[in-house]
Known about the structure:
Elements: H1 4-15, H2 22-37, H3 42-62, H4 71-82
Helix pairs in contact: 1-2, 2-3
Amino acid sequence: MEDVAEETAAEIEQLGVSGIAPGLAALAKSLARAVDAAGGNVAAHANAARELRAVMKDLRGLAPVRAEGGALDDLAARRAKRRGA
């Protein structure tokens, strides 16, 4: 699992929360690097992963709501297409 830091950074970028909560974003990236670096130390890996999961949950909750492109928009577009609108 050597790509947790890369994937975490990409998710933080996608969420657009770096400007809203720069400290939490930096903490998440640091924890992700710790997960990658834990190697065979199962306890360190599990602890870093647990904390990363909690921080990412907080960051996801802070993410701005997107006006379009969500699942509800997709559903509405398909419904409109079926109805011939």
